[in-house]
Amino acid sequence: MNVPLETPALLFSATSLILLAYTNRFLTIATIVRGLKKNYEENETKSILLEIKNLNKRLTLIRQMQMYGVLSLFFSVFAMTLLFIGSNLWGTYVFGLSLLLLLASLAVSFWEISISVKALRVHLSDLIEEAKKHS
């Protein structure tokens, strides 16, 4: 299989956008954690601790997503370098590795999103129960 030099370059824009989205998720969760920490210091409740634990897990997953995304970009650039110097076989293998790392990043992203959705559903169920009590 012969991979042209331009093929790994296609990952640049996609990977950059993904990393930007991951960074935004990280910053949002970091802001929420800071707010919850302040709230916990005022109202030491178990539910806040559970929420902080959930957010801590999500931060760990986002760090992994970013790591795999950056490695994907790194190996994509390395593949381009190998293809540029004429090492087509190694360039193809390294590009394949960069695709696998991008897949790993997306898989961890899916896992993090599913945790986020479960946490939101817990909040919604609490609100629904509260609404039923008032109806």
Automatic annotation (TrEMBL):
- Alphabetically ordered keywords of this record: Membrane, Transmembrane, Transmembrane helix
- What name does UniProt use for this protein? DUF2721 domain-containing protein
Stored InterPro entries: DUF2721 (IPR021279)
Q: What species was this sequence derived from?
A: Flavobacterium rakeshii
Q: Which residues cross the membrane?
A: 12-33, 67-86, 92-111
